[in-house]
Fold:
Amino acid sequence: MTMKTLTAAAAAAALLALPGHANVVAQRQSAPAPGNDVVRVLPVRGNIWMINAGGSNIVASIGKDGVLLVDTGGAAMSEKLLAALQQLNRAVTATGMPQKSCVGVVQGCSWWNSSTFLPATAAPAAPKPIVGIVNTSFDADHMGGNVAVSAAGRSHVGIAPLDAWIMAHEKAPSHQPKSSPLPPAAGPSEAYEGDSFKLNFFNGEGVVLWHMPAAHTDGDTIVQFRGSEVLAAGDVLNMTSYPVIDVEKGGSIDGVVKALNWILDVAVVEHMMEGGTLIIPGHGRLTDSADVAYYRDMVTIMRDRVRAAVKKGMTLQQIKAAKITRDYDGRFGKTSYTPDMFIEAVYKSCSCAKS
Ligand SMILES: [Zn+2]
Structure:
């Protein structure tokens, strides 16, 4: 079944057919908005692909060592995601890697279409397995596909074949409500602690996980592909809305600003043009350091406005009523994460002298 013939209804039916534990994750994941239930694939650079599934970004490294994924999107999109991945994986295996950068004047940049590879896919080679998954956070829109995607993959410890491994910072899965604990198959099979973790060399490049403390949550990870010069930022960077700060899960405005500054420290600019280090946000379009700098400035300005308002003795209600985000709301305030929700999270988590 191709991704084109898989209807939303069929995907929903397939989802309902999933056994026990997967359903728990599925229930937590609200269905994608109408028209937002498609999978789109963008070649980024080298072995790295950006996959947008139902509005969540997934990053795939595809090559001789197999497939490594950063995040798995929402549970409702798993079937379509796996179909798209298999198609892409087959095409990449058949044509050889790596591809060139899609960014910049020379190459141009467009969503990938399987017909790009039609001549080469006439005699497809067996696609490589999905080996592992790294989760940037344990939000349902980023790990909702863990069970299905891991089960479709294959890794080895010694000689025994296992499902694809799942890795996250140790704090990422720690906030599950007691009423609906995380099914074991969705949780990390390995968790790292501390500031960073080096994965093995994968598909010809170093892959490093960096912990961003107390940002979107307290367990956020940014994944750095050091050969391709690509960062998978997760939800500390969101091109569709203000950064979602989950205060209940240990997130904070100061941590988000720090994480964005970290990205800018690490990212390298390409002189006078788009490009350089490419940064894939949790949601929305592919970015480079200029985009991140704009976003960092916006977030910092918002924090400073809240700080100044608190200093003046304004209450949260008064700050919300003052509409201090108004000049950015047209760009970032149009999703279900409203400006008021953002202001409240900034107010609650900022290092502001509240009386
Ligand atoms: Zn998200």
